[in-house]
Amino acid sequence: MPTGRAPAPEPKGQRIATLIQRIQSGDIKIPKFQRGFIWDESQIIRLLESIYQGYPIGSLLFWLTETPMKSEKDIGGFDLPKTPDKYPRNYVLDGQQRLTTIYGVLNWPKSQEIHKLNVYFDLDTLSFHHYYGKESNRYIPLNILNSSSAFLNFQREKLYGEQDEKELIERANVLWDTFREYEIPVVTIYEKTIKEVCPIFERINSSGTQLNVFDLMVAATWSDDFDLNDQISKIRESTKLKDFDEIDNRIYLKIMASVADIGSKEHDVMKLRELSAENLVKLAEKVQESVEKAVDFLSTGLSVPSDAFLPYQYQLVVYSYFFSKVRNPTVDQINVLKRFFWQSGFSEHYRGAAEGVLEHDLSGIDKLIEGDLDALKLPLYLTREDLLERPFVKRGALTKTFAVLLASKSPMNITNGENIDTKIALSGFNSKEFHHIFPIDYLKKLGYDASSRNNICNICLLSSSQNKVLLNTAPSDYLVKSAMALKDQAKNVFESNLISFAEDAPWKNNDFKTFLAERASTIYEEIKRNW
User: Fold this and answer.
1) Domain stops at, among 370, 395, 426
2) Predicted confidence (pLDDT) per residue in 84-134, tens digit
3) What secondary structure does DSSP assign to 233-267, as a single string?
4) Stretch (H or E) spanning 89
5) Cβ(369)–Cβ(326) under 8 Å?
6) 379 falls within a domain
7) 180 and 31 co-located in one domain
8) pLDDT in tens, 481-524
9) 196, 211, 226 — which closes off a domain?
10) Residue 36 pLDDT > 80, yes or no?
């Protein structure tokens, strides 16, 4: 009795030599929705060892289709021979990394170049290793195994005349036979549309070497008219001038889903696959415009110099969602968005947060648009005492927010009064531009531990050229001299760095504990002012 279930495809063994010939003829291609070659050296060696030992390495899955694909990758970046555009053609759905490794090591063109695909076989130890600048008559480069003449020449030139010639030749022949004759099971599926193939691709890649949701959505939404990778690349290029080109791909998916009013959770993101290519293109264009406005707001309106200083990338989702809905925001709305940056950063709003927190904030944006100016408001739980317990940790959300707070004050060098180019100072989180007001070496001599020395309240911005000369100098020395040299400008310079210039300022007599307590109060008042 028929069950209505399609028969399972049967694997057929194919020799490595046959697979290589099919690749070179253009019969086997990698569809553009696949990832690039990402295996590292250890994974490559393990695969070669498995083949040599005769262990199974899993099957390959091909899709044989008449459907022409506009964009496709060759194997491992190799420029393969030009082949006629004839169909049907086989596209690799599963096994790309293994196939790329095998093809790459057997066809690597430069024997004396250090590269993860340039592998030698040691005839003494019967082991594989990567070329590291040293050659030996007893090392066989794997790229000669694809050519009988090259292999025979190697034996003749390198092995003949060796004391153990017979044993070496026998070992070399075993290697040759193994890699020429080893069979890999190949499963081929037929007569499937791209819509039918993408779920297969997702199912396969949901285990093993994990792909994240972005990789899967590249597959799920791919068509001749829409390529998610290309669309995200366009967004990155448009935000590159403001140094916002390192946002996680998954964040862009959340932006796309939220702008499409689908939702921002991962299961919502997967619903993007239900949109037509035409609608996806329109959505991507809208998202690009919204992200550009959000980045401009962060960069210009809040002095965030790059995405490295964005406390949480979820914040970009919130702002992009707002600018997708509002073309000309009011002054009140802009002020709410600014407050939300400081509040979400200093309160570490998204720390370990579930997706529900972001979903709640997007709902708050809707309420803000409707006129509720308190919709995004967060309570101030941070205290002055908390600041005295917090170290300056570059990856921390609170530290990043604090760095942006310093930049927003248009700081001047406390040593000479020159304006600090915060774009340069904070570029890539340049540690040379962050200055310990009480220098580390000075505090070490006084016996202060690392947590005290690196307290966030002991940090200000200072050009690296000035920073270098103050490594072991007491504040009562260099700050007093700076204040005298700055004359009437001194008060403004110090206060631009949130450092007190009072008559009894504790840096004047090197009172570190009092200095930290006083600066914590100054910083805290600034935080409250922005709250």
Assistant:
1) 370
2) 777 788 888 888 899 999 999 998 887 778 889 999 999 999 999 998 888
3) HHHHHHHGGGT-----HHHHHHHHHHHTTS-SSHH
4) strand 89-94
5) yes
6) no
7) yes
8) 889 999 999 999 999 999 999 989 999 999 999 999 999 999 99
9) 211
10) no
- Pair 321, 455 in one domain: no
Q: Please state the domain count of the chain.
A: 3
3-state secondary structure of 14: strand
Predicted TM-score (pTM) of the model is: 0.74
Asked whether residue 121 falls in the same domain as residue 227, the answer is: no
Q: How many residues does the chain have?
A: 531
Range with top average pLDDT, 2-6, 351-355, 473-477 = 473-477
Tell me which residue range forms the domain holding 271: 214-370
Contact status, residue 57 vs residue 50, Cβ threshold 8 Å? yes
User: Is the pLDDT confidence value at 433 over 80?
Assistant: no
Helix 277-296 vs helix 249-259: angle between axes, to the nearest 10 degrees? 110
Residue 348, exposed/middle/buried by CB under 10 A (0-12, 13-18, 19+)?
A: middle
Q: Do 205 and 125 lie in a common domain?
A: yes
Three-class SS state of 127 = strand
Task: Look at residues 150, 144, 180, 151 and name the one whose alpha carbon lies nearest to residue 18.
Answer: 180
Q: How far apart are the first and last CA of the chain?
A: 71
Residue 197 half-sphere exposure, CB side, CA atoms within 13 Å?
A: 26
Residues 390 and 444 placed together within one structural domain of the fold: yes
